[in-house]
């Protein structure tokens, strides 16, 4: 039996993120599906936009300020804000107070999906079934910024039929790093090559992670080397029946 939504229903604002909107809409839909199945109200505000992470990382905090202000205004009325991205959640929680001087309760209420399920709701089994061999890549932001810990692994271990295999040198970067992959393309490609080699060595059918940006990077690398493994967002696994 899958765990319940643990306690009263929560009104959740779904933060879709730019990468989610443009590259991984299935992960966004899957996030909504998982949360709704647990009995929570999921709302997708239509007026949401970029969190401003790209601007801040590129050295333009002044341009990021109105985006941060809009985020706080749009999501301020929800019990929780959940996103299928530790990167964007990390930007909200870590960069808003430090760089923009914005201190609002909504910042602490913003969480990545796996940490929300495990640490906020106390749910480790969402009733998912995914009969495939899977390896998990812990992204840099999930390790060092949002610090989700083993929440994704605890969820994956409760997915029926899933064969979870350990990824060698798992905590090493995939080489994306936003503009790093553009400004330092050769270094990024070398890092990616190591990551793809590690994934291939597991003989996994799928590599999963919490961040669409990293999955985009890894997926491109696996495709170019004609590797059998594919990428899939954690939310899509959790939504599978």
Explain this structure to me?
By secondary structure, the chain is α/β, with parallel strands linked by helices. Helices cover 48% and strands 12% of the residues. The chain has two domains: 11-120; 133-239, Rossmann fold (3-Layer(aba) Sandwich). The protein has 13 helices and eight strands. It has a four-stranded parallel beta sheet with strand order 2-1-3-4, with helices on both faces. Strand 7 (206-209), helix 12 and strand 8 form a beta-alpha-beta unit. It is globular. The protein starts with 10 loop residues before the first strand and ends with a helix.
Write the layout of secondary structure elements.
Blueprint (H helix, E strand, L loop, with lengths): L10 E4 L3 H5 L2 H13 L3 E3 L9 H5 L3 H15 L4 E4 L2 H15 L4 H4 L1 E3 H8 L12 E4 L3 H5 L6 H6 L6 E3 L14 H4 L1 H17 L4 E4 L2 H13 L5 E4 H6 L2
């Amino acid at each position: 039996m899958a765990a319940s939504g643990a306690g009263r229903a929560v009104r959740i604002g779904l933060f879709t993120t730019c990468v989610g909107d443009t590259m991984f809409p299935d992960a966004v839909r899957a996030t909504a599906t998982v949360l709704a199945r647990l009995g929570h109200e999921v709302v997708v505000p239509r007026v949401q936009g970029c969190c401003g992470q790209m601007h801040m990382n590129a050295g333009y905090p002044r341009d990021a300020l109105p985006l941060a202000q809009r985020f706080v205004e749009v999501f301020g009325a929800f019990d929780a804000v959940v996103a299928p991205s530790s990167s964007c959640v990390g930007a909200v929680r870590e960069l808003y107070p430090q760089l923009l001087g914005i201190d609002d309760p909504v910042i602490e209420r913003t969480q990545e999906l796996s940490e929300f399920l495990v640490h906020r709701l106390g749910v480790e089994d969402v009733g998912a079934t995914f009969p495939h061999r899977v390896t998990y890549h812990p992204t840099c932001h999930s390790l060092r910024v949002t610090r989700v810990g083993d929440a994704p692994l605890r969820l994956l271990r409760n997915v029926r039929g899933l064969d979870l295999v350990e990824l060698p040198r798992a905590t090493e970067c995939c080489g994306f790093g936003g503009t790093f992959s553009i400004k330092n393309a050769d270094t990024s490609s070398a890092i990616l090559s190591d990551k793809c080699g590690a994934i291939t060595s597991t003989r996994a059918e799928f590599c999963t992670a919490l961040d669409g940006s990293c999955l985009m990077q890894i997926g491109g690398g696996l495709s170019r080397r004609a590797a059998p493994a594919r990428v899939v967002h954690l939310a899509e696994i959790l939504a599978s029946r």
